[in-house]
Design the sequence.
């Protein structure tokens, strides 16, 4: 009997090789065909319990424990005010959980009670401190009132009354109540115009100003040391007027009167 042909032998070898290979894996099974086991319900429940416990522990640490409570309140930045005045106005609840302190409310309370305070920032300093960073208003004008002086800042806010005039702050001299300009614009508007002028003054002149005289909206005059005067006019074109005044003072340092109400045609006299 004739033996198997070469083609028959090749076919048998191919079938044997295919049978020797393991079956391909199916979804949910490993390479050997065994079913993959997902985490059991008990493991999931345990993980959930641990998460809840950790969350509850964190909440208790922040709100219920004595570890993170307010023990110190500090104030930095005040110059005229004292730290005790700032702390009293803040009224921070010592002993309360630091996380629960309403910093916005504290800041608003300090600004409301202390008008001298321009800005205040309440910052938690873990684990036990609340820090208050204070910036006070700076006077740019004074209004004489009885035996004292009302301080006015660069926004026109009257924020304090002091018994003595601070050095280097000019005195506002406002026209009397019978002035038509005062009746038309009001004292607050004219005050703001005077404040605008002080903000535009060149540094070389600002420290030399003793008075800001407001006769009307467009009639503002500066009184300098040495009986010198500057006719400024209105508060409009303040930067241009400042440049013109600096140029005049350099050109005629001995002059006594300067007029920059029209900055394109400044004038000087009394030299």
Sequence:
């Amino acid at each position: 009997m004739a033996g198997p042909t070469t083609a028959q032998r090749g076919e048998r070898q191919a079938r044997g090789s295919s049978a020797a290979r393991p079956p391909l894996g199916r979804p949910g099974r490993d390479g050997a065909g065994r079913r993959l086991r997902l985490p059991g319900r008990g493991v999931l429940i345990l993980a959930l319990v641990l998460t809840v416990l950790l969350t509850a522990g964190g909440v208790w640490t922040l709100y219920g424990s004595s570890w993170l409570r307010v023990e110190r309140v500090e104030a930095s930045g005040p110059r005229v005010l004292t730290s005790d005045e700032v702390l009293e106005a803040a009224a921070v609840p010592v002993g309360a959980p630091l996380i629960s302190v309403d910093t916005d409310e504290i800041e608003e309370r300090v600004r409301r009670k202390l008008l001298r305070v321009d800005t205040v920032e309440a910052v938690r300093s873990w684990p036990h401190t609340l820090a208050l960073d204070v910036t006070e208003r700076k006077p740019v004008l004074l209004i004489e009132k009885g035996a004292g002086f009302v301080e006015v800042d660069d926004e026109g806010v009257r924020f304090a009354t002091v018994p003595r005039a601070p050095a280097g702050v000019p005195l506002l001299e406002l026209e009397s109540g019978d002035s038509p300009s005062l009746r038309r614009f009001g004292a607050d508007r004219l005050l703001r115009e005077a404040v605008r002028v002080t903000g535009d003054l060149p540094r070389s002149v600002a420290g030399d100003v003793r008075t800001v005289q407001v006769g009307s909206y467009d009639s503002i005059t500066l009184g300098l040391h040495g009986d010198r005067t500057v006719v400024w006019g209105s508060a409009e074109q303040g930067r241009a007027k400042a440049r013109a005044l600096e140029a005049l003072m350099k050109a005629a340092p001995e002059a006594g009167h300067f007029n920059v109400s029209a900055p394109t045609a400044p004038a000087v006299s009394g030299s």
